[in-house]
């Protein structure tokens, strides 16, 4: 073998090792958490409230809380995000506006999650007086999800062929009718992928709800948007840092982590699957 | 805009009030008592609802001043600045002592040291003292662990042990009692301090000035680092809040305090 | 009538489109408003360069240099992991993996990116830190090293997917020209493709850094929390995000301490803002250089 072939071989092996490291990371995390968490997950764990000083029972209120927070965030972020994407792709604004909006979207996506938490605390909890509640938490998480939904929707709408739009306009449809009847339906799967990805992201966030929504313990289910709630990610944090029964709590924290990991990863996989199918139909 | 929002909020807040709902918030030290008491209370009184948050003594007191919680848990007494703020908002906060606590110093079970004086502890936390040998222990680096300097537990500790001197900068600051207990449990050279309720077989409580922290020694006021734990209410408690505070002060409630490892008021 | 409706709809979308800008400005305003009072009591220089963080002592000291250095220290450590592995896997995906492999490997990276930070923090706390403590016989397992490893793993997918994007922008003609002059695949990769995608890859690295420095829960759980200027990778540290998350709960609203925590958040925001703008700027030039309009 020539020297340069050897170098190439070593180089390619190194790249392969890098790729393998990703699989190793993902596999390692799933394996360790599943190995110690799986045995504690059963029907009672999913359907009961915590009991006996958080050492027994389940995490049902936390599951419900996470569900409400996530739905609230999407209800808030979806219309705003899609509207923003429509404006950017369909109304072709001036270049500097596009740049300004793109920079603000990218920067909003890069804001550290704890800063969202402080913003939510100051504005929603204190200034608007929503208190520590589902509403405050959802709005805070919604802002966090906004850039994700905008980019996904924008990408989906850009992918809709220009010829379809022109055909619609040529038939006498107004621009809004074209958007509503032609562009949005065609972009729907792409927007849906964005929504699902945001669900995964929002459901797993802890820092933004730390000061805006999360409760250590509630027994029942929330009655109004102004109730504070337990949430799965915060529950894991609370189990590891509060309470006087570390051994039992760690066991429950393993199970809760596995549950959260399972939820978030299956949501992401669903989004990836939908996107892959969508691409196939485009190519076919 | 703000007015409309406020009225929506008022409506929202009024609804749960009918259901007999109370929000309890504050000290992480009091949290285990609060949680268990709320759990038993709700089992005894279906229809009543109490939600429990941690956050810290400061948060609890701030929230009750803002009117966003009904009961504030605190592991320290209210500060003059906070009282002033409460007065400005027209709140008349009422303190309820619900338990006693001894701040226990803990080390790894393998550590041979069984007793330290307050002076020695102060030296560990404030000077550069670095080896257990200096304190009659094994040849091991001391890992100093403390609560975050804003917590109620830290303030009590700082008052009663450190004479308000600063903790050395390389001390590991943790946000909760359990975090400290779990680090000490797996760190041979560690020293930390936690509420009495957080003592487990995984850590070893050492005596302070010759007295081991136990319920007995705290109750008799022999243990040198004891403090009351509070719940603050807005004025005289009423409704669910009153029922809950009464429950916690009753023999059944005080039994919970003892079960969670703290010291009931007899 | 129809025309008025159309125009109304357009205005509506225009207004809604500016929501992200409004939120961004709102965040900046809130941070400034809540942070500014502290600078009436401590000078900006003393705040940024002070070496002692004693927010509750009498008198208090608000020096955040240890916190800033801790954030940079763990981020630097994270780069050691996420840059080679992230860029390496991007190159693998782009150069070596066939379509079938890509169909499996790209989702793996995306799924790794979606693991919640609390799960990473939990993993670091119960599995990695005891392991490192035993392996290196450390006095304590919660330290800069543990934090850097976890942050590195968290930032790897960010670096990998953005770097892969950058590689895909390199025109085919570059590669063909290189093969034509007799270079092999490795030479083409190192001498042609990487330099061509260089600024795109640096964007990926900057955004990876931005991700690592702003991470909160993981750092809160595994960094140890000692507010001291780090001297080794085994020192427990207190990065900015951990200080905010841990102390915000205990600081009385409106106190100096409360304002100081917002000031830390402001500094943190500005750091990530600079990173994001730099990434934006570099990637724009990168695309122009390769003759791409977008």
Describe the structure in your own words.
The complex is a heterotrimer of chains A (284), B (266) and C (294). By secondary structure, chain A is mainly α. Chain A is 77% helix and 1% strand. Chain A has a single domain (61-283), classed as Orthogonal Bundle (MetI-like fold). Chain A has a two-stranded antiparallel sheet with strand order 1-2. In chain A, a hairpin with a 4-residue loop joins β1 (50-51) and β2. In chain A, α5 crosses α6 (134-158). The mean pLDDT of chain A is 90. Chain B starts with a helix and ends in a 7-residue tail after the last helix. Helices cover 38% and strands 23% of the residues of chain B. In chain B, the strands form 2 sheets. Chain B has a 6-stranded mixed sheet with strand order 6-10-5-9-7-8. Chain B has a 5-stranded mixed sheet with strand order 2-1-3-11-4. Chain B folds into 2 domains: 21-100 and 227-259, D-Maltodextrin-Binding Protein, domain 2 (3-Layer(aba) Sandwich); 104-219, 3-Layer(aba) Sandwich (D-Maltodextrin-Binding Protein, domain 2), CATH 3.40.190. The longest helix of chain B is centred in the N-terminal third of the chain and has 17 residues, at 2-18. Chain B is α/β, with parallel strands linked by helices and 266 residues long. Chain B has helices spanning 2-18, 31-44, 57-66, 80-88, 118-126, 152-160, 177-185, 215-219, 239-249, 251-259; strands at 21-26, 49-55, 71-74, 93-102, 104-107, 115-116, 143-147, 172-174, 190-194, 204-208, 226-234. Chain C is 76% helix and 1% strand. Chain C has 12 helices and 2 strands; from the N terminus they run αααββααααααααα. Chains A and C meet through α1, α3, α4, α5 and α6 of A and α1, α2, α4, α5 and α6 of C.
Order of adjacent strands in the largest pleated sheet of chain C? 1-2
- Category by helix and strand content of chain A: mainly alpha
CATH names the topology of chain C as: MetI-like fold
Mean pLDDT of chain A: 90
Spatial shape of chain A? globular
The greatest inter-chain interface is formed by:
A-C, 88 and 91 residues
Number of strands of chain C: 2
What's the gist of this structure?
The complex is a heterotrimer of chains A (284), B (266) and C (294). Chain A has 284 residues and is mainly alpha-helical. In chain A, 77% of the residues lie in helices and 1% in strands.
């Amino acid at each position: 073998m020539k020297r340069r072939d050897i170098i190439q071989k070593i180089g390619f092996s190194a790249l392969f090792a890098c790729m393998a490291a990703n699989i190793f990371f993902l596999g390692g995390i799933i394996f360790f958490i599943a190995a110690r968490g799986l045995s504690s997950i059963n029907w009672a764990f999913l359907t009961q409230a915590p009991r006996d000083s958080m050492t027994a029972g389940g995490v049902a209120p936390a599951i419900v809380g996470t569900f409400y927070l996530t739905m609230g965030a999407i209800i808030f972020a979806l219309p705003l995000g899609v509207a923003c994407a429509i404006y950017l792709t369909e109304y072709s604004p001036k270049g500097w506006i596009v740049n300004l909006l793109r920079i603000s979207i990218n920067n909003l996506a890069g804001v550290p999650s704890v800063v969202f938490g402080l913003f939510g605390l100051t504005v929603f909890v204190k200034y608007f007086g929503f208190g520590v509640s589902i509403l405050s938490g959802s709005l805070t998480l919604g802002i966090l999800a906004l850039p994700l939904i905008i980019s996904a929707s924008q990408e989906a709408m850009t992918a809709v062929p220009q010829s379809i739009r022109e055909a619609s306009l040529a038939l006498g449809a107004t621009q809004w009718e074209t958007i509503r009847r032609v562009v949005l339906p065609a972009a729907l799967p792409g927007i849906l992928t964005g929504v699902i990805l945001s669900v995964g992201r929002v459901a797993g966030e802890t820092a933004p709800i730390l000061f805006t929504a999360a409760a250590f313990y509630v027994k029942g289910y929330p009655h109004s948007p102004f109730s504070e709630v337990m949430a799965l990610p915060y529950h894991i944090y609370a189990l590891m840092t509060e309470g006087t029964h570390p051994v039992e709590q760690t066991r429950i924290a393993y199970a809760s982590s596995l549950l959260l990991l399972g939820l978030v990863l299956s949501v992401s996989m669903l989004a990836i699957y939908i996107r892959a199918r969508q691409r196939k139909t485009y190519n076919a | 805009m703000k007015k409309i929002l406020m009225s929506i909020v008022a409506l929202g807040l009024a609804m749960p009030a009918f259901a007999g709902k109370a929000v309890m918030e504050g000290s992480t030290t009091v949290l285990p008592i609060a949680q268990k008491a709320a759990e038993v209370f709700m089992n005894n009184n279906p229809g009543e609802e109490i939600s429990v948050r941690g956050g810290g003594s400061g948060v609890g007191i701030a929230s009750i001043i803002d009117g966003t919680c009904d009961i504030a848990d605190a592991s320290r007494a209210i500060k003059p600045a906070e009282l002033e703020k409460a007065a400005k908002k027209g709140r008349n906060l009422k303190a309820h002592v619900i338990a006693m606590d001894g701040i226990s110093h803990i080390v790894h079970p393998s550590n041979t040291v069984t007793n330290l004086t307050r002076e020695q502890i102060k030296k560990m936390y404030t000077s550069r003292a670095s080896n257990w040998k200096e304190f009659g222990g094994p040849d091991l680096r001391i890992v100093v662990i403390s609560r975050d300097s804003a917590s109620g537990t830290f303030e009590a500790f700082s008052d009663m042990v450190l004479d308000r001197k600063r903790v050395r900068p390389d001390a590991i600051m943790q946000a909760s009692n359990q975090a400290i207990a779990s680090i000490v449990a797996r760190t041979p050279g560690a020293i930390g301090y936690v509420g009495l309720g957080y003592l487990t077989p995984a850590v070893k409580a050492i005596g302070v000035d010759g007295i081991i922290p136990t319920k007995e020694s705290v109750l008799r006021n022999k243990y040198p680092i004891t403090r009351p734990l509070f719940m603050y209410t807005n004025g005289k408690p009423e409704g669910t809040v009153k029922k809950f505070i009464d429950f916690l002060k009753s023999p059944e409630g005080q039994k919970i305090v003892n079960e969670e490892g703290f010291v009931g008021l007899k | 009538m129809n025309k008025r409706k159309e125009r109304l709809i357009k205005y509506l979308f225009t207004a809604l489109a500016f929501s992200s800008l409004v939120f961004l400005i709102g965040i900046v305003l809130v941070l400034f408003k809540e942070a500014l009072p502290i600078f009436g009591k401590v000078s900006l220089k003393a705040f940024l360069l002070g070496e002692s963080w004693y927010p509750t002592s009498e008198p208090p000291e608000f020096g955040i240099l240890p916190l800033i250095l801790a954030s940079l220290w763990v981020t630097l450590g994270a780069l050691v992991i996420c840059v080679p592995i992230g860029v390496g896997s991007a190159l693998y995906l782009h150069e070596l993996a066939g379509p079938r492999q890509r169909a499996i490997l790209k989702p793996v990276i995306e799924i790794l990116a979606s693991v919640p930070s609390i799960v990473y923090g939990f993993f670091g706390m119960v599995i990695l830190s005891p392991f490192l403590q035993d392996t290196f016989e450390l006095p304590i397992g919660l330290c800069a090293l543990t934090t850097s490893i976890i942050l590195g793993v968290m930032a790897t997918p960010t670096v990998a997917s953005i770097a892969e994007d950058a590689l895909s922008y390199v025109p085919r003609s570059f590669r063909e020209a290189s093969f034509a002059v007799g270079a092999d695949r490795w030479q083409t990769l190192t001498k042609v493709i990487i330099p061509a995608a260089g600024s795109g890859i640096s964007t990926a690295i900057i955004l990876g850094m931005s991700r690592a420095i702003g991470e909160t829960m993981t750092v809160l759980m595994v960094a140890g929390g000692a507010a001291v200027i780090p001297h080794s990778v085994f020192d427990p540290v207190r990065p900015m995000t951990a200080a905010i998350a841990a102390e915000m709960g205990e600081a009385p609203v409106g106190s100096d301490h409360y304002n100081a925590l917002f000031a830390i958040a402001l500094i943190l925001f500005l750091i990530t803002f600079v990173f994001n703008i730099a990434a934006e700027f570099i990637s724009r030039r990168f695309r122009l250089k390769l003759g791409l309009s977008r």
